[in-house]
Every structure is written in structure tokens, then in C-alpha cells.
Design goal:
globular; Alkaline Phosphatase, subunit A; six-stranded mixed beta sheet; alpha+beta; Jelly Rolls; about 600 residues; single chain
């Protein structure tokens, strides 16, 4: 299932079916535009729409007024699984997503994504923000159906102001607050699509209110001393300043959503654009969330319930509430049906189209079951009940906070949901035993980024933080110590190698060697660069993630690599000073 060679099979199949010809025949008149906004760590309760008086989100709320709101919509307990389920219409376990970092966030290459589906139908596709489903091509968004990508592929980022990002694989410097920047690029993309007469599929996976808790002064100043009228159900657990920062970030999201909606109006395409808004998991802190049990990381209701708002003025009557349960796995088939886009041949979907619910055309909608999972904990939800990971049953219409176990009152329901729970646990046992290498040198893509996040280290080398996503390696002091990746070179070629590092001036002079099989390349650090840590100057509350630095590239030269699998190793050969360097990432660029 996880072989990279599957990717070639899919490309060949699509070519045979004439997908490329289909793209050239589509036009903006054939299909509605699609704009999907996905936020990061924003809970169901982080909208004024849902009764939270601590903040105001009028532009997001307007999507419910002018479109359809889902009362019970479910995502995963954490980030990358939800993204995988949205992209594929399938449970995240089927796509090999079992973690949020160090390779476990990657979506298997035999999965067909929503971007591939819409691009095959003639849409131009773009993603702007936090990808979090694989970095090295073809796991990269450009390899999963997105024509355009601007953002970062990691699970979280260490600095939100003028950060280092990437644009279609090349490292670039962002401008200003990254969420505003992502929105700017999405607007530019959509405007260009309209100018070219091509419908757009725009995916805007924003990275807030995920930590670090950074937000522009304009929004923080509204909250820094604000009393909070509504609190978490266990108020002693709540960090008030963290809540204030999260709510300030949510108001920034609302401002950016307003900019998007205003542009659709300005361009005259609001009626012909489907706008979707949802979140990736429960809140990233103990704050008001409708009294539900659980937060991010939990399979209880509060950890997996998300708002879902869908607006399409041309076809969907506004102001309605859909009470039937639905989930992230439903969005691919739903949007495909609404846009009259055929699904591509591929693995069977777990999701179902809820287009009839959106269009108010559903007759006798059947009860269904949705399964939530994280780290061995399975929770099962039908329209009326939730069976939690410990086997307790809750009737959520009368007990939304999951206070009363009613398993004894409903033994048949309990047994039925337990059988589903047990079957999922059996079916996916061991799905997290990952043997996939990190691909290097794909012949169709010039760039391979290999961050410290995906590497392993020897000796006394340490990560800057226990969370790998935006970390770097430090305490590299001895000759013979190395960092290495379990790599697979996909095609022979010559590659320019750049190592992003810092090193104090007195320690300049270490000799580095990069090796893969018989190929070796050596270079010496000759330029000192020892900037201070960054990030804390923008943090509104103390963080748990790594701080960052401004790393600079060392051009090691060009290495010839042959196809095959093995360790790609960066080793210190000589260390004349106290330390080799702090290491952030390595970039390989195909030059031949």
C-alpha cells in the first residue's frame, strides 16, 4: 500500500484515461469555484455563532446566515489525520497517517486526493498555509494535485511573523503575519484563475490558533485585559491568557475570512462559489466549548466536534441547520457531487455525499456511524449516542457533556457500537508500523527538503525541543557524530546540497561529509553565524514548542546520487572548536 511505485501507476492510469485532455476542456462556466477554509486547533465553541460571548466572529457567522450550518460535524482529535480525511474521503488509518510529525503525518501515495479529483475536471488547484501530510515530493502538495502551494509542510511553525516558508518547493521569506500572508496569496491565486477563465479549487489550511500563541497587536489589544464571561466547564484548568490569545487569533481568522468574502463579492463570483469552513480538532486549551467533554487529542465530543458552514448562494438556501451527523470524510464526495465533478478511480471512500442535506433534498436519511480514533482510543458516534473509548455510552441529545453512562439502559445499542469499535481496532491494528523511507530526487520535481524533524541523530546530538516539527539539532560537539535520514533516491542525478546552519565564529572550521552509498561530498564551515533565538518576542503566553533562529545556507557543492534505499548521512569529520553547528535542514536541488 505504501510503495512509492504506486504513484507511477496512478499517473499512468490517469494519462490513459485522458485526464489531461479533460482539464483543457473545462471552463469557469462549467463548474462552481470552491474555497475551503480549514483552521488549526479552533474548537466548535470558538465562534460567536455557537454562543461564545467572549469573542465576535461576524464574517464567519455570516456563512451560516447565508448558507447551511451542520449541528454535529466530526473531525479527528488532531491535525494531520483530519487533513488526510478531508483530502481523501477516507479514514486516516487507511492512508497511513498515524502521527503528527517525523514522517507519521504522510499520506500514502496510493490515495487519491480531492485536489487530484478537481484538477482532473479542469480546476486550477492551490493550497496556502499548513499542509501537514508530507514534505518530500511526491508527498508534497505539488505531488498530490495542487498546482500551487505557498506555506509550510510541517505540523507547526516556530514564528508567525516574516517566517521562512516555501513556494512550490523553494524556500522563501514570508511577509508579515503568516495568516494574513496566506490569505493574500489565496486571493491572488483566485484572481488569476478568474482572469484566465478557469475555475478554482482553493484550499486555505490556516495554522492558528495553534501554538505558539502569536497574533498582531491589533487583535491582542482587544483581549489582553478582557474579562471572560464564559469559561471552561472546569474553570480551574483554564489558562486565561492562553484563552485570550486563542480568541484573538480567532478574530484574526474572522477578519481574513471577511477579506475573502469581500473579494468574491468584488469579483462578482460570490453566487457561483462554494465556500466551506471547518476546523481540524477540538480546542488546544481548556476554554469554553459548550460544556462538552474533551479537547484537542480527545476522542470525546469536545475533541472531535467541529463547525461546518457551507455557503453557495446560487444553489443552497441560506439560514438552515442540518441536524444529521457528518464528518470530514464526507467533504470530498459532497463537493464533487455539488460541482458535478466525477470521482476518480481509486480506493473505496468511507465518506458519503451529504449534498442532499445541503440542498434540502434528503428523503429518509439513514442513521449512520462515524468512528473517531487517536493513539489506540476508538470512539463511535451514531445520530443519538456516543460510545467512548472506555466503553461508556452517552445519549448526547440529553447529556451533551457526557456525564451519565447509559450503557446499562441501552444494552443492544452498546453491543452494536462495541462491535464496530472492536472491528476498527482489529482492522487497523499495526497500521502505525511505518517502513516508508523519505523520498529524495524525484525526477519530476527539482527540490527535496530534509529537515531535522525527519532525521535521526547519533552520539550526544540533541533536538532543540521534544516536539520534532519545527525543531533543530544542537549539542553537536564531536567528530563522528551525525544526523541521518532513512532515504530512497528515486532517480539518478546530480544535486546541489545546501545545509542550513548556525555556528559561533570561534567554532568555525568543522569539516562535514554527506554520504549515500558510495557517493560522498565534503565541505567545511567557513562563515560564522550565531543569531539569537527568536519567537519569544511575539509570544503572548509561554510556549512548549521550540524557539527558532535565522539559519543560513552552507553550499556544500554537488553530489551524484544513484537510485536506491539507505541512510543519507551528514557526518562531522573534523571539529576544531567546541561545536560543529546547530542544524535545521538540508536542501537538495537537482541540477542535471
Amino acid at each position: 500500500m505504501r510503495r512509492i511505485s504506486w504513484y507511477w501507476s496512478i499517473l499512468t492510469l490517469l494519462s490513459v484515461l485522458g485526464v489531461a485532455d479533460c482539464r483543457s476542456r473545462a471552463s469557469a462556466a462549467d463548474h462552481p469555484n470552491i474555497l475551503v477554509v480549514l483552521t488549526d486547533d479552533q474548537g466548535w465553541g470558538d465562534l460567536s455563532l455557537n454562543g461564545n460571548r467572549n469573542l465576535h466572529t461576524p464574517r464567519i457567522d455570516s456563512l451560516a446566515r447565508d448558507g447551511v450550518q451542520f449541528d454535529r460535524f466530526y473531525v479527528c482529535p488532531v491535525c494531520s489525520p483530519t487533513r488526510a480525511e478531508f483530502l481523501t474521503g477516507r479514514y486516516h488509518q487507511r492512508g497511513g497517517v498515524y502521527s503528527t510529525s517525523a514522517g507519521g503525518e504522510r499520506l500514502d501515495l496510493d490515495e487519491i486526493t480531492i485536489a487530484q479529483t478537481f484538477r482532473a475536471a479542469g480546476y486550477r488547484t492551490g493550497a496556502f498555509g499548513k499542509w501537514h501530510n508530507g514534505m518530500q515530493y511526491p508527498y508534497h502538495p505539488n505531488g498530490r494535485g495542487f498546482d500551487e502551494f505557498y506555506g509550510f509542510c510541517s505540523g507547526h511553525w516556530g514564528n508567525y511573523f516574516d517566517p521562512v516558508l516555501e513556494h512550490n518547493g523553494r524556500l522563501v521569506r514570508g511577509t508579515g503575519y503568516c495568516v494574513d500572508d496566506f490569505t493574500n496569496h489565496a486571493i491572488e491565486f483566485m484572481q488569476q484563475c478568474l482572469a484566465d477563465g478557469q475555475p478554482f479549487f482553493t484550499y486555505l489550511p490556516l495554522n492558528i490558533p495553534h501554538a505558539p500563541m502569536q497574533v498582531p497587536d491589533e487583535f491582542w489589544d482587544r483581549f489582553k485585559n478582557k474579562p471572560l464571561a464564559m469559561r471552561h466547564r472546569d474553570p480551574e484548568k483554564e489558562n486565561i491568557d492562553h484563552t485570550r490569545a486563542a480568541l484573538a487569533m480567532c478574530e484574526n481568522i474572522d477578519w481574513n475570512v471577511g477579506r475573502l468574502l469581500d473579494k468574491l463579492d468584488e469579483w462578482g463570483v460570490a453566487d457561483d462559489t462554494i465556500v466551506v469552513y471547518f476546523c481540524d480538532n477540538g480546542p488546544n486549551g481548556f476554554r469554553w466549548n459548550g460544556g462538552m467533554k474533551g479537547r484537542k487529542g480527545s476522542t470525546d465530543e469536545g475533541g472531535v466536534r467541529s463547525p461546518l458552514l457551507v455557503r453557495w448562494p446560487a444553489k443552497i438556501a441560506g439560514g438552515r441547520m442540518v441536524t444529521q451527523i457528518a464528518g470530514a470524510i464526507d467533504l470530498l464526495p459532497t463537493l464533487a457531487e455539488l460541482a458535478d465533478v466525477p470521482l476518480l478511480e481509486g480506493p473505496r471512500l468511507d465518506g458519503t455525499s451529504v449534498a442532499p442535506l445541503l440542498l434540502d433534498q434528503a428523503q429518509d436519511w439513514p442513521d449512520r456511524v462515524l468512528v473517531s480514533h487517536w493513539r489506540g482510543r476508538y470512539s463511535v458516534r451514531n445520530q443519538r449516542f456516543r460510545l467512548d473509548s472506555s466503553g461508556a455510552l452517552f445519549e448526547l441529545a440529553t447529556d451533551p457533556g457526557q456525564h451519565r453512562d447509559v450503557a446499562a439502559q441501552f444494552p443492544e445499542v452498546t453491543r452494536h457500537l462495541q462491535r464496530i469499535q472492536q472491528e476498527f481496532a482489529r482492522q487497523f491494528a499495526g497500521f502505525d508500523r511505518d517502513q516508508r523511507p523519505f523520498p529524495v530526487g524525484h525526477p519530476e520535481y527539482p527540490y527535496t527538503q530534509l529537515p531535522a524533524r525527519d532525521a535521526q541523530a547519533t552520539g550526544d546530538i540533541q533536538r532543540s525541543n521534544r516536539f520534532p516539527n519545527c525543531s533543530y539539532y544542537t549539542n553537536w560537539t564531536s567528530a563522528g557524530e551525525s544526523v541521518f535520514w532513512d532515504a530512497e533516491v528515486l532517480a539518478a542525478g546530480k544535486f546541489r546540497v545546501e545545509v542550513y546552519y548556525t555556528c559561533p565564529e570561534p567554532d568555525v572550521g568543522s569539516l562535514l561529509e554527506l554520504s549515500f552509498g558510495p557517493s560522498k561530498l565534503r565541505a567545511r564551515i567557513t562563515v560564522g553565524h550565531d543569531p539569537p533565538l527568536r519567537g519569544m518576542e511575539h509570544d503572548r503566553v509561554p510556549r512548549t514548542e521550540s524557539y527558532v533562529k535565522d539559519f543560513i545556507p552552507l553550499d556544500m557543492g554537488v553530489i551524484q546520487l544513484q537510485p536506491g534505499r539507505g541512510p543519507l548521512t551528514l557526518r562531522a569529520v573534523e571539529v576544531p572548536g567546541r561545536t560543529v553547528m546547530d542544524f535545521r535542514l538540508m536542501m537538495l536541488t537537482r541540477v542535471e
